[in-house]
Amino acid sequence: MDLLDTLTAKGLRRELPSREEALAVLATTDDELLDVVAAAGRVRRQWFGRRVKLNYLVNLKSGLCPEDCSYCSQRLGSKAEILKYTWLKPEQAAEAAAAGLAGGAKRVCLVASGRGPTDRDIDRVADTIAAIKGANEAVEVCACLGLLSDNQAERLKAAGADAYNHNLNTSEGTYGDITTTHTYADRVDTVNKAHGAGLSACSGLIAGMGESDEDLVDVVFALRELDSDSVPVNFLIPFEGTPLAKEWNLSPQRCLRILAMVRFVCPDVEVRIAGGREVHLRSMQPLGLHIANSIFLGDYLTSEGQAGQADLEMIADAGFEVEGAGQVTLPQHRADVAAAATAGHGCGPAADACGSGGGCGPCGGHGAEEVPAAVGAAAATDGAGTDEVRSDLVRVRRRGAGTELAPNA
Ligand code: SF4
To answer: pTM score, two decimals?
Structure first.
């Protein structure tokens, strides 16, 4: 297939495909799907071998958010019956992080709900980073705290954070239909602040919110333009009690096409299968590993993932290996750039990036009544659409951080 040969060649050269080529990936048929996966797999193996990076989420503060992101269970007015708690103490967060690291994760993603951190919150997170790194110096820490004010990224960097996650989530054109309390430009600004402070930038998207193929291509091209080191690809978890509860637009095949498109547009960055992996890829998850080089281990912020042990077995069964703490995630040319940026800011070791599902962290939950009009109308596409709420596929997190129960790692 000429298209796939072209895209593979461009991916191996780190050359940007055209928008038309990216759209064509999304338009491939099920008969072509394994060829698409194989082509994206060649690009993945060129830059990341057969390694899979494991990331572990710690939800430092859950629910009670004043923002209205429609996809999020923690949003203003959310009726999703998620765990709600305020800031974990540093030692509680470090204990949760230790479980993920013991399970094989090399990065801990510290996530807090809310519009953005106060300076006092930055102090709390700094204490938490110190507690985690005091026990395990090699661990990568990514913070995901919402919109950053001036100098907060620098303070996180000085505290030992390696990366900052803030997702663009969807295209600039649809952003206002998903969230009204902040703008797409606000999100871009925060990613740039993180980058500017020498933090590795992590920024990704959420697919399945009713967006068009053009919207998906728009946001992925915007992410390439931002030059994030890692791109988490979330598949909407339609939580009951949220505005997007009935947005079941994704099939496993479409998820694989979306991952492949991201890989072709961002060939040498960490592409992470984030929230919604189990819900939407289901038994096709191992094929996703041929395209993405990173996943979350265990549970997400407000929803449960498959057992951490099942993640490890899936990786081994599919012929991949868990990336070790001593291995550098990014290809040498990107790692060198990251190291130079870190040297320029004079603090801490270099690293890459984190990612999640919701706007603030890996998916999440959701809120209430009003379905965003334009996004609701666009409706993708290949056949998975249903008006049913699939509560059998969405399990609210009831264990780990913020509970007395052992975490899933
Ligand atoms: S994505 Fe973040 S800012 Fe938006 S509602 Fe959820 S927790 Fe709040």
So the answer is: 0.90
Residue 255 is a catalytic residue: no
202 is catalytic: yes
The tens digit of pLDDT for each residue in 372-396 reads 333 433 333 444 545 565 667 888 8
Please indicate whether residue 363 is annotated as part of the active site.
no
**Ligand 1: residue whose CA is nearest its atom 5:** 75
Omega before 381 within 30 of 0, i.e. cis:
yes
Q: Which one, of 86, 62, 64, 119, lies nearest residue 303 by Cα?
A: 62
Task: Kindly report, residue by residue over 43-58, the tens digit of the pLDDT.
Answer: 999 999 999 999 999 9
Report residue 363 as tokens: 């998916």
Q: Please work out whether the CB of residue 98 comes within 6 Å of at least one atom of ligand 1.
A: no
CB of 146 shorter than 6 A to ligand 1: yes
C-beta of 17 in contact with ligand 1 (< 6 A): no
Q: Which of 71-85, 221-235, 248-262, 286-300 has the lowest mean pLDDT?
A: 71-85
